[in-house]
């Protein structure tokens, strides 16, 4: 039986992601919503190899305004715990505007089954600290499902 190491699987997923993005011939627009800029920089470092166009909002309120303004967005990476408006409230409002826009919750709460059960507005969940391979996998999964529609 042949086994694959995680590094090989990660490279394979990166190749699939590049292939998926090359089919569209359009840039990928990713909105990162987190009150800590360092988390935005981390997402940018992990996903930057796919040459997306990044936008950053430091609050749920600004994320809602970003989407309401009609700015392009293909995917949102949303923190949960932010001042002013939490990620769930922001996601619910955003989904009322753009129901098919994929949103990944990235939070210290995301690994908690009670959190997942109560927040069905998200398309996926990742716990902090974010694992780069898991992030690439979730982004690929959501974008490939979106292109299949």
Structure description:
- The protein has 149 residues and is of the alpha/beta class.
- It has a single domain (6-148), classed as Response regulator (Rossmann fold), CATH 3.40.50.2300.
- It is 49% helix and 15% strand.
- The chain has 6 helices and 5 strands.
- Strands 2-1-3-4-5 form a 5-stranded parallel sheet, with helices on both faces.
- Helix 4 (87-97) links the parallel strand 3 and strand 4.
- Helix 1 (6-24) packs parallel to helix 6 and helix 3 packs parallel to helix 4 (87-97).
- The protein starts with 5 loop residues before the first helix and ends with a helix.
- The model is unreliable at 1-10 (pLDDT under 50).
Q: Largest sheet, if any?
A: 5 strands, parallel
Model regions low in confidence, pLDDT < 50 over at least 5 residues: 1-10
Main sheet: strand order: 2-1-3-4-5
- CATH fold-level name: Rossmann fold
CATH C-level: Alpha Beta
The SSE order reads HEHEHEHEHEH
Structural class assignment: alpha/beta
Q: Estimate percent helicity.
A: 40-55%
The total tally of domains equals 1
Mean pLDDT: 83
